[in-house]
Amino acid sequence: MKNVGFAYRVLDDELNEKLTWESRQFRNTVQSWVNKRFMPLVTECYLDGRFPMELVPEMTELGLFGIKADPIYGGHGLNNYDYGLICRELEAGDSGLRSFVSVQNSLVIYPIERFGSEDQKKRWLPLLTSGKAIGAFGLTGPEGGSDPENMKTHARKDGNDFMLNGSKQFITNGSIADVVIVWAKLDGIVRGFLVEKGTSGLESREMKKKLSLCASNTSELFLSGVRVPADSLLPGTMERERTYLSCLNEARYGIAWGAVGVAIFCAEAALEYVRNRVLFGESLTKKQLIQEKLVFMDVNIESALRRMIDMARLKESGKIRSRDISCGKMVNVDMACEVSRLARRMIAGNGIMAEYHVMRHMMNLESVYTYEGTNEIHMLALGRDITGENAF
Predict the structure, then answer these.
(1) What is the domain partition of the chain in residue ranges?
(2) What is the C-alpha separation between 368 and 332, in angstroms, rounded?
(3) Rounded to the nearest 5°, which phi and psi values hold at 280?
(4) Of 74, 218, 68, 65, which Cα lies nearest the Cα of 140?
(5) Per-residue pLDDT reduced to its tens digit, 197-253
(6) At what angle do helices 322-346 and 375-387 cross, to 10 degrees?
(7) What gap in Å lies between CA 65 and CA 49, rounded to an integer?
(8) 195 - beta bridge partners?
(9) Which residues, including other chains, have CB under 8 Å from residue 140's CB and lie 6 or more apart?
(10) How many beta carbons lie within 10 A of that of residue 62, not counting itself?
(11) CATH number of the 244-387 domain
């Protein structure tokens, strides 16, 4: 029988053919590294509740930091297809791995390059792109959650310095970061500040007892009388309001690609499992309910992949809208959640075992569903775009 297998594989082959040789090599190298170096460690890291920091030098060597950043600052100057596909390969390994790279690229390197002064760029970007410094993005507060404008963290001018007070929660890399971009209200408007590790009054506390994103560093940050010099303010964040949204759009774009990667991993794992199992004398692949689940996976992953190819094209052309990115993050993550659940059920009792990985992915996706705007928040953003009415 010809053309047996998931239809999204054909689309993926077509995408691969359109990439440059360099882009294909980059993607293939990262995919191989995830399989050979990261996957043998991830179960242990997940159960121990730690991120494998010992792999950071290898990640630097692969070129995972500063993927799109200007080469003048040590970046690689690659495009949105490259960034998206790398996020996809990383999340197929673990959402925590993609989060680590996503924060470094989209939420730290990107805002410094876009909103920072030349001195800030020259100081921090070479360190961040080389992996010599790790960054974090301190936006979410315990009071505001998905509503950053409701944050209580604030800044005030004190002579030639700024004083920061407040707290942040669920901050990826928070307790291992060398620099944190802390978002705080200055005269009622949210602005970004660079706060270095060791600054007096800054305390980080890793959040333990997580049941999701366990192979990722997640922290609380406490700022009590944190004094930073005037040149710690990202000057570009003073030019207009809600500059943090452009950072979130960069990260959400990577998340939408990552959701495709984790969904493909789970679908392939489920198909391989049922092909090698017999129930009542027949292969599981002959069962109607199994085929129904596989069809759901296939058509939804193919649709999500087409969406991301289109989004990459729009992003490259500069025509992408926040609406497009909200839609991609919302729909793709919801799809990946359902695919992971179906895969877990198809693998039956073995589906809860660490060696099959799908339960880990399923648990991680519950966090991905929530962070950087819950699906409900993105739904309301799309509704506002349609109606012109704010229903938040």
Answers:
(1) 8-129, 135-238, 244-387
(2) 11
(3) 50, 45
(4) 218
(5) 999 999 999 999 999 999 999 999 999 999 999 999 999 999 888 999 999 999 999
(6) 140
(7) 23
(8) 180
(9) 148, 168, 169, 170, 171, 371
(10) 18
(11) 1.20.140.10
On the question of a common fold for 135-238 and 244-387, the answer reads no
- From 22, 372, 376, 389, active-site residue: 372
Question: CA-CA distances (angstroms) from residue 41 to 35, 54, 55, 94, 270?
Answer: 10, 11, 10, 11, 22
Q: Which superfamily is assigned to 8-129 in CATH?
A: Acyl-CoA dehydrogenase/oxidase, N-terminal domain (1.10.540.10)
Here the tokens at position 133 are: 């410094």
The residues facing 135 across adjacent strands are: 179
The enclosing H or E element of 249 equals: helix 244-275
CB 135 within 8 A of CB 128: yes
Token readout for 30 is: 């990262």
Closest CA to 116 of 152, 73, 77, 148: 73
Q: Which two tokens stand for residue 105?
A: 């690229």
Q: Is the dihedral of CA 224, 104, 148, 89 positive or negative?
A: negative
Pick the CATH number of 135-238 from 1.20.1420.30, 1.20.120.450, 1.10.150.170, 2.40.110.10: 2.40.110.10
Angle at 220 (CA atoms; ends 216, 225), nearest 5 degrees: 145
372 annotated active-site: yes
How many angstroms separate the first and last alpha carbons of the chain?
52
Report the run of H or E that residue 205 belongs to, with start and end. Answer: strand 202-206
What would the pLDDT profile of 278-315 be if each residue is shown by its tens digit?
888 889 999 999 999 999 999 999 999 999 999 999 99
Give 156's contacts (C-beta < 8 A, 6+ positions apart). Answer: 162, 163, 186
Backbone CA torsion sign across 233, 238, 244, 247: negative
DSSP string covering 354-365: GGG-HHHHHHHH
> What confidence tens digit (pLDDT) does each residue in 153-200 have?
999 999 999 999 999 999 999 999 999 999 999 999 999 999 999 999
- The pTM of the full predicted model, rounded to 2 decimals, is 0.95
Q: Which of 362, 266, 355, 392 is nearest to 42 (CA)?
A: 355
C-alpha angle 125/128/131, rounded to 5°? 145
